[in-house]
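> run fold DUF1508 domain-containing protein
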Amino acid sequence: MGMFVISKRANGDFKFVFTSRKGKIIFTSIGCKHKSDCELMIAGIKDNITLFAFTKNTTASGKHFFRLSKGGLVLATSRKYSTELSIKKGITEIMKYVPLSETLDFSETDAIFAPAEDVFAEATE
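> ok
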């Protein structure tokens, strides 16, 4: 099953990614000023994935990617895929797992783990 992960960019904007069940990023959202905007977009995608358009593109170097949009507004851009078959598999995975996915919020803290000094301080004493 895939997962949505909300985080904060260096400029203070919020974003989310959708990851595969193996942890690989499938697509990354546009930047949002408020976390609630990310939450609303995730809810909309989860509840109505069939209403969204997947526009396939190719880079100058021949890599394939897609943009996820609704009503002409691009909401997310996928990772780069090496083949047309792999991009089709990515879209199939989205259609299958997005409605069942969970959401993790890592936007409230900059560090998930304690500073190394705190963890290893006891070992040096």
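The first strand starts at residue 3 and ends at 8.
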